[in-house]
Fold each of these.
Amino acid sequence: MTFQPKDRLIFALDVPDKRQALDLVQLLEGEVGLFKLGLELYLAEGPGLLKELVNIIDPERIFLDLKLYDIPATVLGPIRSILHGLALFTLPSDLGPAALKSIVSNTAAAFRVLAVTVLTSTTGDDLKALGYERRYWENPARLVVDRAVMAKEAGCAGVVCSGREVKAVKEACGPDFLAVCPGIRPEWAAVPGDDQKRIVTPYEAIKNGADYIVVGRPIRTYPESQGGPVAAARRVVAEVAAASEP
Ligand code: C5P
């Protein structure tokens, strides 16, 4: 199968219920590569929704973004009951090397694990307030890269990082280590009251080396008067295609 520009687009299904989620899957099925299920939807609908989704789309197109943070035994409990064969699953890198290694080695057959480096809503000021060393809060990219190297050593398939840090992550971890980038804001789509901070456009993220970009609100809330989510997804894919050209 050839890798098309749309395959690099992960749509964040950040909606409160199954009905809205299934409507969006139906609408965008031919426009995006993967669908990302996050906490909001998973807590509301539970594993039953995953079973329904795999009746409509290939499990290899599902990214379960739960960022479970607990001791390995407690994280492994709920993971065991999750459907196998999903594309991607997230763990916070703050779990540390030993816990990441243990969880990754116990779930190797089920899905590829991505470590979340530093949330794209986190700023240097946040890191300072959390007690991180000066070199990290002065430049959060340093923390992202150190965590990416740790995640690679722990056996993770890749990381979630911002499009601003992806180049440095690839340099440190190699081209095959996956970089999945949220915090994507096209110039043509405003998100009111935005919480994302370390943002880049779809074009910039792909040019910098992102394997996948995660886009939620810029697609979901794109005005119907301008073509709604389908038009927005196509505009994002056009940027991905332009950035993929040599
Ligand atoms: O709506 P928006 O495009 O900001 O959605 C981004 C998605 O990526 C959200 O589902 C968010 O949980 C997720 N995410 C993120 N930053 C991370 C990891 C995941 O924004 N570091």
Note: The chain is about 45% helix and 15% strand.
Amino acid sequence: MIIAVDGPAASGKGTIARALARHYRLPHLDTGLLYRAVAATVLREGLDPTIEADCVAACDFDDALLGDPWLRTDDAGKTASIVSAHPLVRAALLHRQRRFAAQPGGAVLDGRDIGTVIAPDADAKLFVKATPSIRARRRHLELVRSGETVTFDRVLADIRARDERDSGRATAPLAMSPDAAPLDTSFLSIEAAIDRAIAIVEGQRAG
Ligand code: CDP
């Protein structure tokens, strides 16, 4: 079974995808990490994230980089959102993601374009969302806990800018696949969101 989980920054898609992977005993790929790894490689090699050719040259990173804690920082996320808008970067990372999805038994992938581009034939598709201010509150808490000093207003502005960039780009923009089930986590606890996600997957499997 392939499960596609898409949604904007800090919507809860990562937590839900990990929980679904545990529940169904499937391997999980956080595809945002791939774009974050490209971002890290670009910056470390002194390349320019706004130049497509520079970013393509950074797509051949070693899998070991995916464990680097710097990838989880806000700066990595911001740069990832810039490098991910280049069509040739998306093309370079496509096969890696499709290979992961095609494993025997299936997989859970989370990102922005899993249900629309990477795995359009997925058995279950969720689009996880929450209001910008609630997502900013979650992200702010996460960042403060990880030791970053940043204001709530800054985080909210970044979330809005990221939404705009992710939804406005020409290639594989953040968009809900017509056959995906929306899951609004704004007023749900983590447990309730996970229960809802499992119920959606069960429903889609049965249907
Ligand atoms: O949750 P958050 O947006 O902070 O991080 P992420 O999911 O790791 O994604 C970082 C950036 O990578 C996003 O802003 C997107 O621009 C990009 N991305 C993408 O374009 N396609 C994906 N499948 C996953 C991430």
Note: The chain has one domain: 2-202.
